[in-house]
Structure formats: structure tokens, C-alpha cells
Amino acid sequence: MNERSRRNRIDRVTTRGGDAGETSLADGRRYPKHHPRIELVGALDEATSFIGLLAEETDSPTAAKLRALQSRLFDLGALAATGRSAADWSALAKDVERDTTALNERLEPLREFVLPGGGRDAASAHVARTVVRRAERAWWRAAADSAELSDTDGGVFLNRLGDYLFVLARSLARDEVMWANLGDPSKPD
């Protein structure tokens, strides 16, 4: 093992480098903490964390799938931090879409909007979905000023991941509660 591989990747947590409202990314540049790229890295971190929480609520095969998706979100974070990625985001998005389609084929067709809930695991999937959608919006804000991001299909991957989490939530739900439209005369008050 060489000296570099023996060193800790993160040797200090508190650096005080961000105390003035700026932080660094792996590209070596300093950014204000409100910069779209920093917002993106934070949104991806939130999404990864909520998917981790969801993984703790699910069975082993589902948890393993979610852990793999967490790693892909880390890869997207690395792309946001460095501007480089070896991943084929188009192929990864297609993989998630294929998984979503397979899961959705086992469900009854939707006839109305679903209210998030249906049990703790399903509710956790809905929360993860909404956080991934926020990360997707942050992706497109950051990509608007960055060819490094806009030239990849990272945003497409996030879009497919949000779809997957929605279908996963439906598949985990013990009971789905449908939206009762206030203006719908067929629904009692």
C-alpha cells in the first residue's frame, strides 16, 4: 500500500474554512454557500440521506437496490464537485427506468393522485422522492451555467430516480389513500 492510499480521505471535519460563507469543492475553487453548485451538492446529500433512511425501512433486496442508488447519487455529487464523471448517466437512467417499469407492472393503474403515506416505509419513500425532485431542480439550476453538468444526463437520472421512488412508495403502501378533490361532487364532505 502506498503512502497516499494509507492517508485518511477526510482528516478533519471542522476546518473553519466556511465560516465566512464560502466553501470549496473538489475542483479547488471557492464558492459562496448560496451558489447553485453548492445548493446542488447539498440537495444530493439530502437525497442520499433520505434514501438511506428508506433503506433502513425496507427488506434486504430493496435496501440493496437503494444502497446502490445512494452510491450513484454520490457519483453525481462528485460530478458536481469536480466537473468530471466516468459514469454513463444515460445508461444509468435507463436502468432505473427499467426497474421502475418492472415494479409498476405489479401495481393497479392509478386513477387519482396518491396522498403520501400508506405506512412508515411507503411514507419514507415519498419523502425520499420529494427530496430527489428538489435535487433534480437544483441540478437544472446549476446546469444552466455549467456545460460540465448540462452535457451529461445527470438530470435525466434524477428524474428517473424520482419516478422509481414514487412507484416504490406505491408498492410498499399497505393502503393507498387517494386525493379527495374538494370540488368533486361525487365525494362527500
Considering the chains and any ligands shown, give keywords for the structure.
7 helices; two-stranded antiparallel ribbon; 189 residues; 59% helix; mainly alpha; 5% strand
Question: How would you explain this protein's 3D organization?
Answer:
By secondary structure, the protein is mainly alpha-helical. 59% of the residues lie in helices and 5% in strands. It is built from seven helices and four strands, in the order αββαααβαααβ. The strands form two sheets. A two-stranded antiparallel sheet has the order 1-2. Helix 2 (36-57) packs antiparallel against helix 3, helix 2 (36-57) packs antiparallel against helix 5 and helix 5 runs antiparallel to helix 7 (154-172). The longest helix is centred in the C-terminal third of the chain and has 24 residues, at 120-143. The mean pLDDT is 86.
Count the E strands.
Answer: 4
Mean pLDDT: 86
Q: Report the major sheet.
A: 2 strands, antiparallel
Q: Percent of residues in helical segments?
A: 55-70%
Quaternary form:
single chain
Helix and strand topology:
Elements: H1 3-6, E1 22-24, E2 30-32, H2 36-57, H3 60-82, H4 89-104, E3 114-115, H5 120-143, H6 147-150, H7 154-172, E4 177-178
Antiparallel strand pairs: 1-2, 3-4
